[in-house]
Design brief:
It contains eight helices and five strands; from the N terminus they run αββαααβββαααα. It is α+β, with helices and mostly antiparallel strands. Helix 3 (about 85-95) packs antiparallel against helix 4, helix 5 (about 150-210) packs antiparallel against helix 6 (about 215-240) and helix 7 (about 245-265) runs parallel beside helix 8. The two termini are about 65 Å apart.
Length: about 290
């Protein structure tokens, strides 16, 4: 809403706008003028272009976003403070812009009491949308004009969708990198650490045969047992890092065999029920699901 606007918002090149503003200030007094300044501060904090017009569509006040947009293009200069919002559309009509006459008709309908949400196509298929809402104060009628670029909004939406797709692809690549690293680590453990453990176990076997006293034989046997348990744990770790049965039998078959093996080792009764289609894509998601089980 607008209740008196400071005169410095217009320039010397816009006498009609300055006169209109001065008339408002003298009509409503300092209290309404202060409230008008508060409204200016309020709309200045909004990101979208917003202006307030008089009943005859004279632009009385505008926020920074509106002013910046009006300064960007020559034709938008007609939307600066002091100019007439309806004359802007009349000028567009004279330049042959499609949809300008429809916008003028809607402005006239709005002046007569109807609602309005005008959308026209500018140059380079730019879609400008102006949403209007009126308010009355002390016998005067004013209109709040909110301007948006529908084409820019759609461009930002497409950009957001593209960013989401890129993010999903990056997340997929990251998961695949993690899975590849697990496969590499499992292979290295199998090819190096496991082979060293086997060699150590063979050496302990020889030491057990060569032991000449009970104490030494017992120590060698304990070491061999610990080494065997470590080897078993290492095989379990490499199996979880890269379950080979997923590639051989699919996720369903691998989980079923995992449950059967666990039941045999522990003597527990396990009932595994798997639902859904097994697509057998050998994806990182299948490996993650297998490790969860």
């Amino acid at each position: 809403m607008l209740f008196g606007v400071r005169s410095e918002i217009t320039s010397a090149s816009e006498p009609s706008g300055a006169a209109n503003v001065q008339n408002l200030s003298s009509r409503y007094g300092s209290e309404e003028s202060a409230l008008g300044s508060a409204v200016r501060a309020l709309i200045d904090g909004l990101p979208g272009p917003i202006a307030v017009t008089s009943a005859d569509w004279r632009i009385l006040i505008a926020n920074r976003a509106w002013i910046d947009r009006a300064e960007e293009e020559q034709r938008c200069a007609l939307l600066s403070i002091g100019h007439n919002f309806r004359f802007y559309w009349l000028w567009l009509q004279m330049t042959g812009l499609a949809g300008a006459q429809d916008a003028i008709d809607q402005l006239d309908q709005f002046t007569a009491g109807g609602g309005l949400q005008a959308q026209v196509h500018g140059r380079e298929d730019e879609q400008q949308r102006f949403c209007l809402s009126r308010f009355d104060f002390l016998g005067g009628r004013y209109t709040i004009v909110a301007r948006s670029n529908a084409g820019e909004i759609e461009r930002l939406r497409r950009q957001n969708r593209a960013l989401n797709v890129s993010l999903m692809k990056a997340e997929t690549r990251l998961v695949q990198v993690h899975e590849d690293e697990r496969v590499r680590l499992a292979r290295d453990l199998h090819d190096t650490a496991a082979q060293h453990l086997i060699g150590m176990n063979l050496m302990l076997g020889k030491m057990k045969v060569m032991a000449t006293d009970v104490v030494s034989a017992k120590a060698v046997a304990d070491l061999s047992e610990l080494l065997g348990q470590f080897h078993k744990d290492l095989r379990g770790l490499t199996y979880l890092l890269h379950p080979p049965q997923i590639g051989e039998h699919g996720l369903h078959g691998a989980i079923a065999r995992l449950c059967d093996g666990f039941a045999q080792r522990t003597g527990l009764s396990i009932d595994a029920r798997i639902y859904g289609e097994d697509r057998r894509r050998n994806s990182p998601a299948e490996g993650a699901a297998y490790r969860i089980v």
